[in-house]
């Protein structure tokens, strides 16, 4: 039979635990798929090639779409971009 008081498990300070929980809550979910890195070099090379081909194909399709849209319009097509954030305003 055990003698004396049981040992207490080590706990994080409440302030540190609360701060970590607040940061975790404000960060939100992360974008993009999660992948497990393969251990074999050939698989890594295949994935890089596949990714590069996919990006190239997508960029080409986007470029062709813009060209077709510009060709059918009397005015030049202006692509909408996100304005850079203002440095002076916070």
Automatic annotation (TrEMBL):
Residues 1-36 are annotated as: Disordered. Residues 15-26 have a biased composition (Low complexity). Residues 27-36 have a biased composition (Basic residues). Pfam families: DUF2462 (PF09495). Coiled coil: none annotated. Belongs to the UPF0390 family. This is L10K protein. It comes from Pomatostomus ruficeps. The lineage of its organism: Eukaryota, Metazoa, Chordata, Craniata, Vertebrata. The gene is L10k.
């Amino acid at each position: 039979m055990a003698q004396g008081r049981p040992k207490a498990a080590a706990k994080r300070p409440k302030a540190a635990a609360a701060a970590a929980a607040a940061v975790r809550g404000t960060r939100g979910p992360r974008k993009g798929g999660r992948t497990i890195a393969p251990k074999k070099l050939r698989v890594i090379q295949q994935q890089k090639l596949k990714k590069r081909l996919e990006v190239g194909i997508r960029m080409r399709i986007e470029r062709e779409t813009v060209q077709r849209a510009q060709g059918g319009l009397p005015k030049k097509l202006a692509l909408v971009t996100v304005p850079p954030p203002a440095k002076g305003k916070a």
